[in-house]
């Protein structure tokens, strides 16, 4: 009687198909390079990490290969790929390669190709940030500029894991910040930036815009939508007439507080396309950027 080998795919088959449609494996292999003796390419390792992440399981890195035991690994990742090839040593080497190449840059390469293949429009974009809390022991130098893991206290790190404004209401935990620029209609990420835990949106938004404009290979956006953190004298002087933007005016600004008190309900007009929304156009010379005429807000 022939032996029957049953292997699981579950929902991972859909995710693997999306990865293949975007071309993530080919892009990473092209940018990172490959070696004729490697059993699994860098792109395939990244695909395996995506599948693992979307498998709704968490485990130490040395148990990574166990995730694929009993699964149709060759069907999901590629011909000849076995679970034991996805060991912690191979994953560590690939992550080092990605870090040396530039995580943000490889993300942009993938996002650019995705937009081309699927016709994703970046005409209007939305920029926002959040914080990601972490657990564990971290040592901080006296200057506070670098955070060092205890067992690797002599090695440089990419970002500072430190305390800052916590979006998830855990000021007791250290964190890092994460900013995403997404396409407005689909909400698909097209640019990302990971930064120190005490970085503010006000200082990071300009950095993200500059980096995106320098690295994005497609057509530049017509409009940037950001929250009130962008609206500062420094940012308006630097970007006020360089990009088209929409932002909420912070209620902490004196001029905004005064307008809230003096504008009458009858001064507002009904928004035709969006019921329940009304607007009132006012002019402001806040920041007086580039000595140009007042802008409507």
Automatic annotation (TrEMBL):
Residues 5-111 form the DUF4277 domain. Residues 127-276 form the Transposase IS4-like domain. InterPro entries: DUF4277 (IPR025457), IS1634_transpos (IPR047654), Transposase_11 (IPR002559). The lineage of its organism: Bacteria, Bacillati, Cyanobacteriota, Cyanophyceae, Pseudanabaenales. This is IS1634 family transposase. It comes from the Bacteria. It comes from Pseudanabaena yagii GIHE-NHR1.
């Amino acid at each position: 009687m022939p032996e029957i080998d049953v292997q699981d795919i579950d929902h991972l088959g859909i995710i693997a198909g999306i990865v293949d449609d975007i071309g993530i494996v080919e892009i990473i292999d092209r940018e990172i390079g490959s070696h004729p003796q490697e059993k699994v390419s860098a792109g395939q390792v990244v695909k395996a990490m995506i599948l693992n992440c979307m498998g709704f399981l968490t485990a130490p890195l040395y148990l990574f290969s166990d995730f694929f035991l009993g699964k149709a690994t060759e069907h999901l990742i590629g011909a000849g790929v076995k679970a034991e090839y996805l060991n912690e040593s191979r994953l560590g080497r690939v992550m080092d390669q990605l870090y040396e190449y530039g995580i943000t840059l490889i993300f942009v390469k993938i996002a650019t190709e995705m937009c081309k293949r699927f016709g994703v429009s970046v005409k209007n974009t939305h920029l926002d940030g959040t914080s990601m809390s972490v657990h564990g022991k971290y040592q901080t130098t006296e200057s506070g500029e670098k955070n060092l893991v205890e067992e690797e206290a002599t090695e440089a790190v990419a970002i500072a894991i430190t305390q800052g404004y916590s979006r998830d209401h855990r000021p007791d935990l250290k964190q890092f910040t994460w900013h995403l620029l997404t396409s407005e209609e689909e909400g698909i990420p097209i640019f990302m930036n990971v930064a120190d835990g005490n970085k503010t949106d006000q200082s990071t938004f300009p950095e993200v815009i500059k980096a995106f404009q320098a690295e994005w290979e497609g057509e530049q956006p017509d409009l940037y939508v950001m929250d009130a953190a962008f609206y500062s004298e420094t940012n308006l002087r630097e970007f006020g007439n360089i990009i088209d933007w929409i932002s909420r005016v912070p209620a902490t600004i004196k001029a905004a507080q005064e307008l809230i008190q003096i504008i009458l309900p009858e001064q507002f007009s009904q928004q035709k396309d969006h019921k329940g929304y009304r607007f009132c156009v006012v002019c402001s010379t806040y920041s007086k950027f580039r000595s140009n005429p007042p802008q409507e807000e």
